[in-house]
Amino acid sequence: MAIMSCFEVPVQQPDRDMSVQEFKVWIKQFDMDHDKRISTEELTEALESLHMWFSSWKARRVMKDADADHTGFIDNKKEVEKLVKYAQQRLHMKIHQKS
Ligand SMILES: [Ca+2]
């Protein structure tokens, strides 16, 4: 807590089904430096918050899959969509499509 005292927005735990929109809001909370893109470190934090094992290894796998233009960040709409798909299919997160 003390380390990130400048960032005291309570992190919402997705302990239930989420819509894609809710997932996007949730993942945005981990954009610690507010540069509007998700780095591997920030993704690791997100997975850790879900108590996932091997979160940094998983984060690198996710990044490899979702970072389509190889910038090292999830930084555009298409990549976020890929992240959603990966989370659903490989991380077994319950994210449902809702228009
Ligand atoms: Ca990218």
Automatic annotation (TrEMBL):
The keyword RNA-binding does not apply. InterPro entries: EF-hand-dom_pair, EF_Hand_1_Ca_BS, EF_hand_dom. The keyword Calcium applies. Residues 18-53 form the EF-hand domain. GO terms for cellular component: cytoplasm. Signal peptide: none annotated. This is EF-hand domain-containing protein. It comes from Solanum lycopersicum (Tomato).
